[in-house]
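#dry-run=false #mode=assembly
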Amino acid sequence: MDIDGLSALVAARYRRTMEFAEVIRRRRMVRHYTDQPLTQEVIDRVLASALRAPSAGFSQGWAFLVLTEPADRARFWPLIPTRVEQTPAMQDAPLVVVPLAHKQAYLDRYAEPDKGWEDRAEARWPAPYWYIDTGMAALMMLLTAVDEGLGACFFGIAPENLAGFHAEFAVPAEYAPIGAITVGYRAPDLPPQPDRVAQRRRPATDVFHHGQWDGARS
Ligand SMILES: Cc1cc2nc3c(=O)[nH]c(=O)nc-3n(C[C@H](O)[C@H](O)[C@H](O)COP(=O)(O)O)c2cc1C
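#status=ok
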């Protein structure tokens, strides 16, 4: 191993990481970034975390368009006009990832002998696992960004912009973007964002139903 490889290994081993609870506590959507670049190692760690996400039947029916080159990112933002209007500093993020859900991979996987849904009927699916899994992969990247001391944001791509997105990046029609993720070093919020962590979380008593829905066990 050469010296660069060795120092990368040492840096990876001894880099500071957060307690998991701290990662969860700190996670929030960050919409303002500096133009400070990310190292390739950091980008690789954020991306690699997506591959650790769970997937139904281990289908892994996802793909990710990764935009790191400024010229490629510049092709992306005109496709998201509302977002650019509302939070222009999003465009400074040095990394944009578009998670893509591949439904056909799930229909094919579940037609295999151990699953046996050979008719590939969509009605069999209790929920669209292709979106669920791709969303879980997205969350892995959001959490890894926090662990790396970065900010990240998941945001939607409006239906009217999807055709333009597919055409611009030659993404096959069967790969559906579930949104997009920006990752980068956080800049001060302008205007300040509400502290949703403190103010807006629904209380546990509203959300969790212990034992049964109305809490009155018979
Ligand atoms: C499926 C999904 C779609 C979202 N779409 C957008 C979006 O289009 N624009 C945006 O600014 N934020 C978007 N968000 C971020 C939410 O607004 C944000 O998660 C929520 O307000 C809670 O804030 P927090 O994540 O900072 O705690 C989206 C989040 C999810 C999970």
